[in-house]
Amino acid sequence: MLKRKIKRVFEHVAAKFGRHERRSSDPELLILGYHRIIPLNHPEFQSMEPGMRVQPATLEMHIKILRQHFDFVDLNDWVSRVTNRLPVPNKAVALTFDDGWVDNYEYAYPVLKREKVPATIFLVSSMIGTDSQFWPERISGILSYIKGEKRAGLGKEALKWFEQYQFDVNNSRSFDEAGVNALILRLKEKSDDEIYKSLTVFADVECKIPHLAHIMNKAQLLEMKASGFISFGAHTKRHFRLDKISDYALLEDEILGSKSDLEGLLDITVSGFCYPNGSFDNKAAGVVKRGFQYSCTTRKGWNSTKSDLLLLNRILLHDDVSHDPVSFKARISGLI
Ligand SMILES: [Zn+2]
Q1: Residue 237 Cα, ligand 1 centroid: separation in angstroms?
Q2: Ligand 1 center from residue 187 Cα (angstroms)
Q3: What separation in Å is there between the alpha carbon of 155 and the centre of ligand 1?
Q4: Between vectors from CA 15 to CA 14 and to CA 21, what angle results, nearest 5°?
Q5: CA 35–ligand 1 middle distance (angstroms)
Q6: Distance from the CA of 21 to the center of ligand 1, in angstroms?
Q7: Residue 184 contacts by C-beta under 8 Å, 6 or more apart in sequence?
Q8: Comparing C-alpha atoms, which of 289, 306, 285 is closest to residue 83?
């Protein structure tokens, strides 16, 4: 309780005296990162990772506050102006959305269009228009399906898979949030390619789990492109964490392949990249440099015209840390 009160005091101070309130001699750029935009009453809201979601009303509130302190810019434009030594606003903000969730089209796009705010969406090219799911989503689908009686029907291979990750299917407590998170953490030690391949042992189970398409399709992307408010960047082909890839050809395919996929599909030039999970190493950064003018990380902070455009800082947002004006301003303040 006391800890929460102290945190709140810090938030108030940061909200009042943060970088957003000060003028700087050098132009600055704040990049904000969102994932899913989804209303509280949506059937999926509760089951979604809290770190992934922002309500449309929260996004609107963010935009209102940002308008008081910043000029909205399209990230591609800002980078190209800086590269060509053209003037940029003293305080600019660029909104970005990762992964290409269909709720970006359903709930974020109407707000952005109405408020005339540009944004960049980083797309996972091989997932566009498919009903593929990211592996953590697939794991939670499998776990909620086999919870209870259905675990008895698991085959030998599937049981061996759980054993390998020290997940006790016979203990109902394994299925709690902490148990699921522990399993995800153990899986994260492997490369994404290995994880996806290993999930074939659940083919029988997964074909019984209905799921909706969560990723936008080409028509939705083209409609947003035509509005003039939305631009796109690459977020790999399959959302593989790049520091876990040892095969150089696969690394190139994930990074450069996503760029050519998007350019072909949407008839655009893709100049921006965003690292999945914020993960990268020198090898990955070297490949990104060959194909892109800029890239976004998950390193928290602001940027200036002198920043390394290939390693831009971003502040990630979700409802839990930005649902009211004070916590949002504190989050973007550059102080905490
Ligand atoms: Zn992502």
Answers
A1: 11
A2: 17
A3: 32
A4: 100
A5: 8
A6: 30
A7: 136, 139
A8: 306
Would you call 225 exposed, middle or buried from its count of C-beta atoms within 10 A (0-12, 13-18, 19+)? middle
- If you measure from the C-alpha of residue 127 to the centroid of ligand 1, how many angstroms do you get, rounded to a whole number? 12
Q: Ligand 1 center to residue 186 CA distance, Å? A: 19
243 vs 249: CA distance, rounded Å: 14
Q: Check: CATH 3.20.20.370 for 18-131+214-332?
A: yes
Q: Which of 25-39, 138-152, 216-230 has the lowest mean pLDDT?
A: 138-152
Residues 151/171, Cβ–Cβ less than 8 Å: no
Q: Which residue has the tokens 């190493």?
A: 281
Q: How far is the CA of 99 from the centre of ligand 1 (A)?
A: 5
In single-letter form, the type of residue at position 210 comes to P
State the distance from the centre of ligand 1 to the C-alpha of 239, rounded, in angstroms. Answer: 6
Tokens 């000029």 belong to 71
pLDDT of residue 289: 98
Q: Residue holding tokens 């960047």?
A: 233
- Tell me if 162 sits within 8 A of 174, measured CB to CB: no
Residue 329: CB partners within 8 Å, gap ≥ 6? 14, 15, 16, 18, 20, 65
Domain boundaries, the chain: 18-131+214-332, 135-206
CA of 225 to the centre of ligand 1 (A): 20
d(CA 93, CA 315): 11
Compute, in angstroms, the gap from residue 122 CA to the centroid of ligand 1: 8
pLDDT at 147: 87
Contact between residue 320 and residue 45 where contact means Cβ atoms under 8 Å apart: no
Q: Is the pLDDT of residue 211 over 90?
A: no
Distance (Å) from CA 317 to ligand 1 centroid:
13
